[in-house]
Each structure stands twice: as C-alpha cells, then as structure tokens.
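Work Package 4 report. The design task specified in the project plan requires that, given a folded chain encoded as structure tokens, an amino acid be chosen for each position. We show below one input record used in the internal validation round.
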C-alpha cells in the first residue's frame, strides 16, 4: 500500500466533471450572478463553469490550507482579503476538491460576511465525504476513499514536492539515490509511475537541482543540505 495514494486527473476528466457539475447547478434552479474561484485550485473549474452557465462575472479569493502536496497546514487562512460590492447578487464559490473542506468553508463565510451578497453557495468537482468537515452545495463526484488527486495544474509543483519528501523522510535515501532507485521508491511511496507524469518528471528533477535542493554526486541524487 502506498504511503500517499495518488490519482492523476486528466484535462479531459476536468472538462467532463465541470460540465456535469454545471448541469447539476442548472438543474437545481439556482443560477449565480457571480462566480468566485478559490485560489488556486478553483481557477480552472470556475472558468469552465462560467462558460457552461453563461456567467461573465468571475472573481477569485485565496483561501489556503494545503501548503504542500498531501500535507496540510494547521489552519486555513484568507490571503490578501479584499472587499467587493456584491449586494443583491447570488455568488457561487468554486474549488477543485473538498478534502478537509476548511478552505471552501472559510471562503464562503468570508464572502457572506464581508461582501454581503444576497446568497452564497459552494461547488466542487469532488467531495471526499469520509474526511471532509464541510459538504458543498454542489459537487460532481463523491469520493469515499481518501486519495491525493493530482490535478493537471499542479503537476510540476506536486511532483517536485513528492520527490523532495522521499529524500527528506525515507532512510533509504540518506546516502543518495540513482534515478532508477528513485523511480522505484517513488512508485512505492505514491502508487503511480514517474512515466505517468510524462515530461514533468525530468522538469521536476531539473527544478530540484537548479534550486539546489538536490545535487548530483558520483551519478546519484543527494540532498544539498543534510537532513536534520
């Protein structure tokens, strides 16, 4: 069993799920005047929903909980809060996935309190029901077994963090790893193959070495700074 069960989401799935979500919203008889994307994961789904629902008023708000792939910070926060005149408007707040649910709940509460719209509802492509503390008003897929859903807009970011975590936490990486050995451990940790990420695998290794997180010594990758 992988340490972090990871499932890659394709662009085609994002489009399919967003269209299905739009149909659920339409079917409810409630149509928003404004869509607010929860930055950063909600950007793409929110824009697609605007297209499918015929809405031109799109805003964004950064409510953040996951500071690293598959590792949450202790508390969700609103970054760079600001005010919008939304009196009399119906607002739909959109995120990609509801995991803990804290970021979406916080964004909804902030908008209701500070922007004072007529009403606020929430939507997400996926809702992980066993662990979420908050259920969105609209969702396309209910997920009953937790996994880290790796969306296409965070391919490089997540992959870079995944690789670095192996070097910082796996005792077998202490003396360095050949790329083949790293690939093997990656599959063991995450349950997906590096080649499933396509060219992002090489981009991630290049980023880690260019930022001096990793370096190559005698043909193996090692941490530039020893683990504490």
């Amino acid at each position: 069993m992988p340490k972090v069960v990871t499932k890659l989401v394709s662009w085609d799935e994002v489009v399919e799920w967003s269209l299905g979500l739009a149909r659920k919203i339409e079917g409810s008889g409630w149509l928003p005047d404004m869509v607010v994307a929860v930055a950063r994961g909600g950007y793409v789904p929110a824009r697609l929903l605007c297209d499918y629902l015929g809405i031109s008023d799109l805003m964004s708000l950064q409510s953040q909980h996951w500071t690293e792939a598959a590792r949450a910070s202790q508390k969700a926060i609103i970054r760079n809060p600001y005010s919008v005149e939304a009196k009399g408007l119906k607002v739909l707040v959109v995120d990609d996935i509801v995991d803990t649910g804290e970021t979406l709940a916080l964004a909804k509460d902030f908008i209701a309190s500070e922007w004072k719209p007529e009403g606020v509802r929430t939507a997400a492509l996926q809702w992980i029901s066993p662990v979420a503390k908050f259920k969105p008003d609209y969702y396309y897929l209910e997920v009953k077994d937790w996994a880290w859903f790796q969306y296409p807009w965070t391919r490089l970011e997540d992959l870079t963090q995944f690789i670095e975590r192996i070097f910082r936490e796996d005792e077998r990486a202490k003396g360095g790893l050949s790329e083949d050995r790293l690939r093997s451990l990656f599959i063991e940790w995450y349950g997906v193959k590096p080649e499933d990420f396509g060219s992002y695998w090489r981009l991630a290794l290049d980023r880690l070495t260019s930022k001096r997180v990793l370096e190559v010594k005698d043909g193996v990758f090692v941490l530039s700074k020893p683990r504490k």
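The helical segments are 11-27, 43-53, 102-115, 155-169, 179-190, 200-210. Validation will be extended to a larger panel in the next phase.
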